[in-house]
Design a protein that fits this description.
The protein is an alpha+beta fold. The chain has 28 helices and six strands.
Length: about 750
């Protein structure tokens, strides 16, 4: 009865439940509410998102306008005098405030704006000071990219072009022996180092005394198949391990066959053999490893030096071949073939003189086969030691495998024999009498004996050069007699040093005043090398050195150079120096010299310039000397006579320079003249450190304008922080911000954004 009632009740509940879920009263209202809520949320998100996008765009525009406005306040004096742009003294924040006042109007209660932008904060930093070398160089490039090529083409290259090819031939004729001598000396020094290291390597091999650890009497040949069998005893060599192995193996097998430990009768002997074998192999490996490391280091250095010597020898051969084919250094041909207007003039050919000098230069070049064979010997020397070390390691491994009776006496004996033979082979080739090392040393000693002939000939013109050196020294020492005008150089130097430290540059390298050599051959060699450097510098400028050209011409256009005619009275008397000369030596009258040489004394830079002018004139006049003395037979005598002619004429040129401030380029081009400043322009193409020259330019700019380039920025970075109140669902927008969909962030119901804009001159 109770069960039936329960069943009826359950059926009623089931029917009632089905009817309840089928009812539809109120369903539409709930559904519409849900839809409206979703649509409202989406629309409010879209509206605020659109407002945020508009705010971001407007903030970006304002930040850019602020940065540009800030950098419009450049220093006018700096721009007018030096063509440079740097930020002036106006406070950047004031300019930004004015920009914000115009672009972010105050919101009123009666107005409506979709984007109610508020400027929260701003900051502007003017960085990348003009004192940074990269910024300074960038502005130089911009200022000179149109001026420099035209000016140099007409004023310098057009004058140097007519004598370029002849000077190239003459410089080869004069400079060939001097160049080869330097390379010859360096090559022979490297070969001496090769021999030295090779001998040290073989000493390292001999000192190791590996033979005493391999087998006694290693020089005696023996057959490993007939090696004696000895009972276990003291082990002093690797051979002892092999000779005692059979006895060891027999006793080891006997003990292994014993059923009980008390029946094992050879344990002490077995341990003695194994201990001795381990000790000898370990000692042998250590000795070999130490010897190999030392030996290979020395041989590797020998191979490296030999390769470098071979490279130098190849360069010497190339130089001789170029001289034989009348191929000048590239700078001469580049200037001679430059597509620039040329002033009239010509020079004579030096082919006969060049031919004589080339013929005498062949004896300085070594045959290439010497280096090939020598490198093979060094490689073999290295290989023999490597093989010996490998065989010692192989023997050690074999001993380890053989302990326990698993090896054979014959295998050990053969390994000992291989080590001994490897040692004997090295000893025969590199240590014993008539070895390869001593033969090479004797060959090189014979080669070096030929140096004396050239050394004797070079002294022929020294006396005349001593007179010229005395004259030049008296000229360069004039600065010691004058104490005025130091303050300007000291002030500029302090400013340059501050800029150098600001750039964290290395200590500047001052050019110095080179003392004229009393060695005529050396002086002429240096002058010809200097002339080759000048032409190579001009050639590089024509071909690829755009940046250097621009820097040099910038210095020439914007900075002063000295008037040499003011020194005319000094050439005749260095006792009484007029006050007008002393007053003219201020830094403001010789800025270009200071930029090029960087010396802190009022006369030192001018003296350095005159020293280089003399070197250039000596090279040109020596070229003429070859022609004037071509009747001499011996090439070294012709060279000495040409040097004497060049020194005499160069001194006359220096006197002419301070008289009329121009010199004929050459005896064969009398219509082409060069001034003092023209020489400086040429020198800047050939030398002068990039950083040092720019640092000095910046120091002079600071000195002349009072504008400190280390604090005068060229790059503005404006950071603007704005905010805007959100209208609808700031919490939901904040969640979107966390997901990365927004560029800024939502704080206290407001969207905040930060924008950065930059501007550079």
């Amino acid at each position: 009865m109770n069960g039936t009632n329960v069943a009826k009740r359950m059926r009623k509940l089931s029917i009632w439940g089905r009817r309840f879920w089928k009812r539809q009263k109120g369903a539409v209202s709930i559904f519409l509410i849900f839809i409206v809520m979703v649509v409202f949320m989406v629309m409010t998100v879209f509206i605020d998102y659109a407002r945020i996008a508009a705010m971001e765009w407007r903030s970006e525009v304002i930040a850019q306008s602020a940065a540009r406005s800030v950098m419009s306040a450049f220093d006018p004096a700096l721009q007018q005098r030096y063509g440079l742009f740097a930020y002036g003294e106006t406070e950047p924040a004031l300019i930004v405030e004015e920009v914000l006042r115009q672009h972010v109007p105050q919101q009123s209660q009666s107005s409506f704006s979709w984007v109610q932008l508020e400027a929260d904060s701003h900051s502007t930093g003017v960085t990348r000071p003009l004192g940074r070398l990269e910024e300074f160089e960038h502005q130089i490039m911009e200022d000179m990219k149109y001026k420099a090529p035209v000016q140099l083409g007409y004023e310098i290259f057009g004058r140097m072009k007519p004598m370029a090819n002849a000077m190239g031939e003459a410089s080869q004729a004069m400079d060939l022996m001097q160049k080869l001598e330097k390379m010859y000396t360096k090559r022979n020094h490297l070969l001496d180092e090769v021999i030295k290291d090779q001998k040290t390597a073989r000493i390292a091999f001999s000192d190791a005394q590996l033979d005493t650890k391999i087998i006694d009497g290693i020089q005696v040949f023996y057959n490993p198949q007939h090696i004696a069998s000895n009972p276990i005893g003291t082990i002093n060599t690797a051979a002892d391990i092999a000779m005692q192995y059979n006895d060891y193996a027999t006793k080891y097998a006997s003990d292994q066959a014993a059923a009980k430990d008390k029946d094992k009768q050879h344990q002490s002997e077995i341990k003695e053999y194994e201990s001795g074998a381990h000790s000898i192999t370990l000692e042998l490996k250590q000795m070999s490893e130490y010897m190999k490391n030392r030996h290979q280091n020395f041989v590797n250095r020998s191979i490296t030096n030999l390769e470098e010597a071979r490279t130098i020898n190849s360069q010497m051969s190339t130089i001789v071949l170029q001289a034989r084919l009348n191929a000048p250094p590239p700078g001469y041909s580049q200037v001679g073939g430059a597509n620039v207007p040329t002033q009239p003039g010509s020079t004579a050919s030096q082919a006969d003189v060049l031919n004589q000098i080339r013929q005498s230069a062949d004896q300085l070049v070594m045959r290439d086969q010497f280096f090939i064979e020598y490198e093979r010997e060094l490689t073999q020397q290295k290989t023999l030691v490597s093989n010996l070390d490998d065989r010692i390691k192989g023997f050690s491994s074999l001993v380890g495998q053989s302990l326990g009776g698993a090896g054979t006496k014959l295998a050990l004996a053969q390994s000992v024999f291989n080590m001994a033979q490897q040692w004997k082979q090295y000893d025969k080739n590199y240590v014993a009498l008539s070895n390869l090392v001593d033969k090479r040393a004797a060959e090189l000693a014979e080669l070096k004996a030929k140096d004396s002939e050239i050394a004797r000939t070079k002294k022929a013109a020294d006396q005349k050069m001593m007179e010229a050196a005395a004259l030049l020294s008296s000229f360069t020492n004039l600065g010691n007699q004058m104490e005025a005008n130091k303050e300007g150089f000291t002030d500029v130097r302090k400013k340059v040093e501050a800029i150098r430290q600001f750039n964290a540059s290395e200590e500047m390298k001052q050019a110095g005043i080179s003392k004229p050599s009393k060695d005529a051959s050396k002086a002429s060699s240096e002058s010809m090398s200097f002339m080759t450097t000048l032409f190579n510098g001009m050639g590089d400028t024509l071909a690829s050195s755009r940046d250097r050209m621009y820097r040099n011409e910038y210095a020439f256009l914007y900075f002063t150079s000295y008037d040499p005619t003011k020194l005319q009275s000094i050439m005749t008397s260095v006792v009484n120096i007029p006050n007008s000369i002393v007053e003219s030596l201020g830094v403001h009258n010789q800025e270009l010299e200071y930029i090029l040489y960087g010396l802190d004394h009022h006369f030192s830079n001018i003296a350095a310039a005159y020293g280089e002018i003399f070197a250039a004139r000596l090279a040109i006049r020596t070229m003429e000397g070859f022609v004037e003395n071509r009747h001499l037979v011996h090439p070294l005598l012709i060279t000495a006579a040409a040097i004497l002619y060049g020194i005499t004429q160069a001194i006359l040129d220096m006197q002419l320079l301070v008289t009329v401030n121009q010199i004929p380029l050459s005896k064969y081009t009398p219509n082409i003249k060069l001034t003092y400043a023209d020489h400086l322009r040429i020198f800047m193409m050939a030398h002068g450190d990039r950083e040092d020259m720019m640092l000095r330019m910046l120091g002079l700019i600071h000195y002349n304008t009072g504008t400190d380039p280390t604090t005068s920025g060229t790059y503005a970075e404006t950071q603007l922080r704005t905010k805007m109140k959100l209208w609808f669902l700031p919490g939901l927008m904040k969640l979107l911000g966390h997901s990365g969909m927004l560029g800024g962030q939502v704080v206290n119901g407001k969207y905040e954004s930060s924008k950065t804009s930059v501007f550079s001159y």
